Amino acid sequence: MAGRIDARLAELGITLPAAPAPVANYVGWTRTGNIVVVSGQIPLKDGAIAYTGKVGADVTPETAKEAAKLCFVNVMAQLKAACGGDLDKVVKVVRLGGFIAAPPEFTAHPVVMNGASDLAVEVFGDAGRHARSTIGVPSLPGNAACEVEGMFEIAG
C-alpha cells in the first residue's frame, strides 16, 4: 500500500523515476544521523536533459521554473532511495540549493527556483517549508538550465 507522500505524488500526477546514477566520483545522496543530503540534480527526464541553455537568453524564466520542478522530482527520487523507498520517513525539508545557468544580466533566479520550492510544499505540506539559496552560474553540466540540491531530516 502506498504511503501518504506516494499518494500525494499520485494526486499531483508525478511518478518518480529511479534515482539517477551519479556521472562522476560522488554519490547521489549521503546520510549522517537523521540528515540526508542529496547531491545536485539536473532536469533529467527519461535519461536525457529536458531543459538546456541559459535562463533569460535561451530559456524563459517560466520554462526554467518547470526545469527546477523537474530537478526537485529527481531530488525526491534520490531521497526515496535514501529512505528505503518510504518518503513518509521525511520529517522536514531543511534546505534547498538552486543553481541557475544564466547570463550576468539575469536577476530573476528566485522566480526560477520557486519551481522546486513550490513543489516541496505541495508534496510535503508544512514540512516542505525550507531554507534556500539560489545563485546564478555561467554553466552547468550538460548545458542544463538549472540544478537543485537538498538537505532533509528523516525519521529513524
UniProtKB/TrEMBL annotation:
Name of the protein described by the UniProt record: RidA family protein
TM helices/strands, residue ranges: none
Domain Endoribonuclease L-PSP/chorismate mutase-like: 7-149
Pfam family, one: YjgF_endoribonc
